[in-house]
Amino acid sequence: MVDASTNEKFSGATRYVLDDELASIVNISMALEMPLLLKGEPGTGKTMLAHAIAESLEMPLIVLNVKSSMKLVDALYQYDTLTRLNDSRFGDSSRDVSNIEDYIRMGKIGQAFTAMSRTVLLIDEIDKADSDFQDDMLDVLDQMEFDIIEIDKTVKARHRPVMIITSNAKKDLSDPFLGRCNFHHIAFPEPVMMREIIGVHFPGLDAELIENAIGTFYNLRDVDAVEKRPATRELINWIRALKADPDFKPERLAEGEVPFLGVLFKKSQDYRRAAQYIERRRVL
Prior knowledge:
Elements: H1 20-32, E1 36-39, H2 46-57, E2 61-65, H3 72-76, E3 77-79, H4 81-90, E4 104-106, H5 108-114, E5 120-124, H6 131-143, E6 145-148, E7 153-156, E8 162-167, H7 175-179, E9 182-185, H8 191-201, H9 207-221, H10 232-244, H11 251-254, H12 261-264, H13 268-283
Parallel strand pairs: 1-8, 1-9, 2-5, 5-8
Antiparallel strand pairs: 3-4, 6-7
Helix pairs in contact: 8-9
């Protein structure tokens, strides 16, 4: 296995606003060759951080989207028995059916291990998996190798990937898992940082629109009993919708109007509560 370079430093990407603390934990995780576990509510940029690291360091990005039913072997490799059976029955393939290795396909972790250059490996929503999956996966990532039992072969990583693991904290992760990762909680951006984020996505945007949109957005995030509060992604899409409406005027937001409320709230009950909140404020 080729050792990871200690000269690579992450300092942000073209469309990712980064604070100093997050940049530090990313870089120290790369230096220590440890996975970085990110927690935070949906929409705080956990997944996008991996994309930003890959862009900044010019590395390929490999994404493992964890499912509740997933087994670790699925993330390592798959043995395509069905194709082998069809090849043996119909005999019209260039593959050698006696060579099982021709029917082995790398999973996402396997792809990261066998890549010719160093990659960023994003393991997204690890909290969906059971604790055995989590702990066994970290064993593989610690050892940087795994066995393909069908062909009695050990796959060793050519390069140690930069490992980013995300969790929405839907259930607790095991203590052994937590002990083998660095950790960072990405808090939801304060208004000051949100202005910076909006500025990155919408250079030269009208200042009145920025202030009114952000003020309205944070007020709506405080609506009581909302199940899914709007996140940064919804704010960006909402501003896109406002900009696309030729009849929209920024002062309408200051007057209590909220066009395209369905861009911000995607659940019917949340939409109704937000609409009721807006109506109460307009009456007052």
